[in-house]
Specification:
This protein is an alpha+beta fold and 300 residues long. Helices cover 45% and strands 17% of the residues.
């Protein structure tokens, strides 16, 4: 299988093809593997219907899920549930940081809602309001078994030996048999997440990602989420840890960076498409994030 970074989800994302719920894998076999190098890049805030599991290959990576933060070291495993808002970035800038992940639709375990596989293993996890994300350190009781399953699953997807689909499906089913106990334990502790805030942020992010090339005001964001302007600010401060206007600016710069590398548009066309008022402000803002001018970035 050809693997790639989560380009549809990262700061290299195409400004035309950003899709928060993009399909991973195929309809026939909804499983895909990814390899991401976040040494200098990052995986931007996003969500998807698929479940995601993986591990840190190098470095120290910050995994943010809603308002929850997890610092992952080399070897640490992570689980991100369906439709959970999340982002990943390097915690030790200048040092290598990479991770491998598998994204898959729950139907690979069971699409029959009356089956024991769905009722006993899949449903309790994907519909848990508390089991939104989980991290296993190397001293965790089930770490070695989960690590073995995830590594074997990723390797089978990569090499695609004969009948690998059956092996991968069986491995993912086995994984759910292991983590169902983790889900039940977390549900018993009644950990709470800001689900309402996360839902509102997803609506606002979707509006920004769809309309970033247009003039966007705080009023527009409030209207999109059907909340007040103060609530928009509160949601972003709680979940994203920045203001919506600053996020919008940075998102426009991300797309400008993509265009510089992947199109032949002039710099003037790019800053206009990304809704910057003039070239000098665009260049100054770009340099603050990428530490070089747009022209220099294109030539790298």
């Amino acid at each position: 299988m050809a693997i790639s970074p989560c380009i549809s989800l990262s700061n290299q994302a195409s400004p035309i093809n950003i899709d928060e719920t993009g399909t991973h894998g195929t309809t026939e076999f909804p499983v895909a593997i990814y390899y991401d190098d976040v040494t200098e890049n990052f995986v931007n805030w996003h969500w998807h219907a698929e479940i995601e599991i993986g591990y840190v290959e190098k470095g120290i990576i910050l995994l943010e899920c809603g308002n929850r933060k997890h610092t992952l070291n080399k070897g640490d495993l992570f689980f991100i549930n369906s439709k959970v808002l999340h982002a990943m970035s390097n915690q030790n800038y200048g040092k290598a940081a990479t991770f491998k992940s598998i994204a898959f639709d729950g139907s690979i375990i069971s699409s029959n809602t009356e089956s024991v596989f769905y009722k006993r293993y899949l449903h309790p996890i994907i519909h848990s309001s508390n089991f939104r994300d989980c991290v296993w350190k190397q001293d965790s009781e089930c770490y070695h078994l989960l690590s073995q399953i995830i590594n074997e699953c990723w390797d089978k997807m990569y090499s695609e030996p004969t009948n690998y689909e059956i092996t991968v499906r069986n491995l993912l089913t086995e994984l759910f048999a292991v983590i169902i106990n983790e889900c039940e334990m977390i549900n018993r502790t009644n950990q709470s997440s800001n689900l309402l805030l996360e839902d509102r942020v997803q609506i606002i992010l979707n509006y920004i990602h769809t309309n970033y090339s247009k003039n966007i005001t705080l009023d527009d964001l409030a209207s999109a989420a059907n909340v007040s302007k103060s609530e928009v600010l509160r949601c972003f401060k709680t979940i994203i840890k920045t203001s919506p206007i600053k996020y919008l600016k940075n998102f426009r710069l991300q797309n400008a960076a993509y265009m510089l590398k992947n199109t032949t548009y002039s710099i003037q066309t790019i800053f206009e498409l990304c809704r910057f008022d003039d070239n000098s402000y665009f260049s100054k803002s770009f340099k603050e994030i990428y530490h070089c001018s747009p022209r220099e970035y294109r030539e790298l």
